[in-house]
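Figure 6 in text form: structure in, sequence out.
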């Protein structure tokens, strides 16, 4: 499962033992995309500046990790830091999820983390499709509905056998805004790709998910 460089993401890098080569401050990917200090995502990171992922990775006690996906974004009801970490070892796969409220520290994350084992083929199908994505263009403020955040609002990171990359997420990655009247499926490509794992469906491949 090779990772190719795509527009807008960090160049492939050798993994580090602590964070798979990911910059969990996201400074590098934000600077590469000219995201300034006044942008919403920068201010959000000031409030939720500590990712639980570093603690999860460094304290991992299972088989050696050969592949991983990390998703971080603001919860849409109150903006808390939502973190989803998916892990693949030689024989197993796992899904971890937490929501970090501003009233407890990153050290309290363990008490609010949901963990479950998932089917390895479900992880492999997700990684295959998601790692092929290119970073979407950001929504500008004038074309964005009043109740939706413009610009970039989250981060998607990949690791596979010693190489890693990161990309930024937009609102349409989560929820499509181009649906026609009567169209029921409004999931963005990320939520569409994640849904079989969240719903614990038996799958051999991820359904086709529309790009934003």
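Output sequence:
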């Amino acid at each position: 499962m090779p990772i190719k460089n795509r527009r807008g993401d960090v160049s492939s890098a050798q993994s580090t033992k602590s964070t798979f080569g990911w910059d969990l401050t996201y400074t590098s990917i934000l600077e590469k995309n000219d995201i300034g200090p006044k942008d919403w995502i920068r201010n959000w990171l000031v409030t939720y500046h500590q990712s639980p992922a570093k603690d999860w990775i460094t304290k991992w006690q299972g088989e050696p990790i050969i592949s991983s996906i990390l998703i971080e974004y603001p919860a849409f009801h109150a903006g808390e830091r939502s973190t989803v970490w998916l892990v693949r070892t030689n024989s197993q796969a796992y899904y971890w999820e937490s929501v970090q409220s501003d009233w407890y520290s990153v050290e309290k994350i363990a008490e609010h983390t949901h963990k479950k084992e998932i089917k390895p083929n479900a992880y492999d199908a997700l990684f295959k499709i998601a790692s092929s994505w290119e970073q979407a263009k950001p929504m500008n403020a004038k074309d964005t509905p009043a109740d939706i955040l413009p610009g970039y609002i989250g981060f998607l990171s990949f690791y596979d056998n010693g190489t890693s990359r990161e990309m930024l997420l937009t609102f349409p990655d989560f929820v499509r805004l181009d649906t026609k009247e009567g169209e029921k499926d409004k999931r963005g490509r990320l939520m569409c790709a994640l849904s079989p794992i969240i719903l614990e469906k038996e799958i051999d491949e991820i359904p086709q998910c529309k790009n934003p």
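Caption detail: The longest helix spans residues 120-130.
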